[in-house]
Amino acid sequence: MSQNEDNTEDKQAKPKGRPKIEIDVKVLRNLLEIQCTLTECAHVLGVSTDTLKRNYEDVINQGKTLGKVALRRAQWKNAIEKNNVTMQIWLGKQCLGQSDSPLEEDAGTILPWTD
Known about the structure:
Layout: H1 3-13, H2 25-33, H3 38-45, H4 49-55, H5 57-80, H6 85-96
């Protein structure tokens, strides 16, 4: 065997780069469901935000979406089952495009001044 072949075998046996950090995907998803920021998630998990973005994009999107769905479900339940009028009005504005400002044709005219 030549000297170059010996060096090639030695280099291939050594792991290259930093060892991959394994994170608990359930913890990440739970943090995202309560709308934690990526910075907060990164601090809790002991990794950088770049690592999360690069390796867990699908988990990030899923966690954020599940959190929004849970919040919407809670709002809907509060509005309908508990008959929360304030939440019903807010959801009407958000979902149905309703507003509480009347559209009158005379709204732009100046009222006459009388003494």
